[in-house]
Design goal:
Elements (H helix, E strand, L loop, with lengths): L2 E7 L2 E7 L6 H8 L18 E4 L2 E4 L12 E3 L12 H8 L9 H14 L6 H7 L10 H23 L1
Parallel strand pairs: 1-5
Antiparallel strand pairs: 1-2, 3-4, 3-5
Helix pairs in contact: 2-5
The structure holds FE2/S2 (inorganic) cluster (FES) (2 copies).
Amino acid sequence: MSLALNLVLNGQPRTVDLDDPRTTLLDLLREHLALTGAKKGCDRGQCGACTVLVDGRRINSCLALAVTLDGCEVTTIEGLADGGRLHPVQAAFVNNDAFQCGYCTPGQIMSAVALLAEGHAGDDPERVRELMSGNICRCGAYRGITEAILEAHRTLADTDREDAA
Ligand code: FES
Ligand code: FES
């Protein structure tokens, strides 16, 4: 028996038939919906490669059972750009060479988007590193990642100031 799961996926309402209630959100995205941006690194909540947003909060999608997310809003790296325009965090990762192999990058970016939205990091590199500690980069591109997040923070703050003016 399959279960009907309703999601808002990257801004679009979707109904998905789940054959197996044990399917994780990560497997649903990658294996059933062909959204392969979120990566499977450890599959046990230890690397952050699978990070996506659920209702605006970052989660390890390898640990979330899809069946528990009925009615939720899910955002993946595929849903971040605005048409052809990169999200400020994506643009900042490019500007700062914040990757080498790129395997961890979608998870790093999704985590950074949520971190900036949470408003906790400010312009403190140590705080950024601490708040990003759940996202492992085996290539050691941490310096660029931190610089990218700080740049995105400045870009988003400038945008907020312009919007308020
Ligand atoms: S694959 Fe989910 S945390 Fe590593
Ligand atoms: S860029 Fe290779 S794992 Fe991070």
